[in-house]
Amino acid sequence: MADDSKEEDNIPAARALEDISCCARCVLRLLGERDISLYVNPQEKDVKRTCVACLGILEKSNGNTYIDKIQSSVTDAEHQFENFMFTISLPHSVILRQSPFKISLDFTYEDGKKELEFLNYESSKSRPRQRRKRQKYDPVTVTAAGVKKACAELTTVNLLKRVADCPPKSAQSPSELSEITCSHDSIHIAGRYNKYSRALSQTPWIINNVRHCESSVEEKICDLITAKVKPDDHKFASAGREDIDVRMLGYGRPFLVEFINPRVTRLSRPLFADLQKEINSSSADIAVRDLQQVTKEQCLFLKDAETNKTKTYKALIWTEEEVSQEQLQKLANEKDLKIFQKTPLRVLHRRPLAVRERYIYNMTPELIDSHYFNLFLKTQAGTYVKEFVHGDFGRTKPSLGDLLKTETDILQLDVESVDVDWPPRTEETDELKNSS
Ligand SMILES: [Zn+2]
């Protein structure tokens, strides 16, 4: 390392890598050491555990064992050869343990197309004669395994000479490094959102390329993060979703965004705090909190929460006939009410037809006047609240109308809470709460 201060910076990182049992060579390569001479004889501590990164393949203590083994295997094989090609195949687990940033090189050799044309002939040998002529060489379908397999069948020099030049002709042009691809594993950002608008969809609402809603919760959150993270693409997910005309209040709904092939991957706490402020000041329709980076493993919590969570709602109800305080008290007495919901008409185009059993855990009515009241409900995940209120032409049984023995309709709906303890609360949010 040319720069002394950089070397000092690396000491804690090197220790941390040693502590999780990285071998000396892996410590060097993971810190990005480019001086190849340092790898020859690195200072290795008494590592008792196998290196977590290379699974022992690069460990100095194994070096001589490998060389001895290779030497004796080659000697025992008794081949005559003037030169050799050296190939290595690593355990697939090593891939999992590698850096999230990958540089892939793709070499192509123009004359190779001609050279490998015999593959068609070979592979169509068993096919009827008339089909053989129509076969065209397609470089896209050629795989390394296919070439190896075809070569394995060329067991004598005479067989080889039928399809290729032996020794090979000199190349007309060198191989070309035709493609270099840089990619980074996805990063995941989680948080909770509130939606204060009754005219904002959760995700972009576009049918046949026509936009039906100017923006969306997803865009209001992701556009600003995308500008910082610079990914190729992103995927938005949340613990359930609310309709366009439903507000999401309380502590908010957990969401998760996967950013695919991100350019910026090291996001500090202060950066998240700034991002959060930026998103919150950009629109009065939404707010985010607990914005943070999460690991892939942590993302599984959201999937779990999707099915196990409970939700609380506040609904504004209208009744055709007058309702009394006594009638409403009956609703308050209902606990763990079991209802059966046939897939609502309004979602039939995207959900399979089924009857789902759901629970309304409790209801707390608040009379406004003889035809209007607020109803607070705590329900199981996946309950269609609007349908529970108006009955969906008898598709939900019992409905609120059945219980009150009158026609009922829902005028407004707010989600008061999505009871999922994920993602973890952050300091910035506590500050936000204290200041508001
Ligand atoms: Zn190692």
From TrEMBL:
Protein name in UniProt: tRNA pseudouridine(55) synthase
Pfam families with a match to the protein in the record: Pus10_C (PF21238), Pus10_N_euk (PF21237)
GO BP field: tRNA pseudouridine synthesis
Family note: Belongs to the pseudouridine synthase Pus10 family.
Gene3D superfamilies (UniProt xref): 3.30.70.2510, 3.30.70.3190
Gene expressing this chain: PUS10
UniProt-listed PANTHER family: TRNA PSEUDOURIDINE SYNTHASE PUS10
GO MF terms, alphabetically ordered: RNA binding; tRNA pseudouridine(55) synthase activity
Occurrences of domain Pus10-like C-terminal (ranges): 189-419
Highest taxon above the source species: Eukaryota
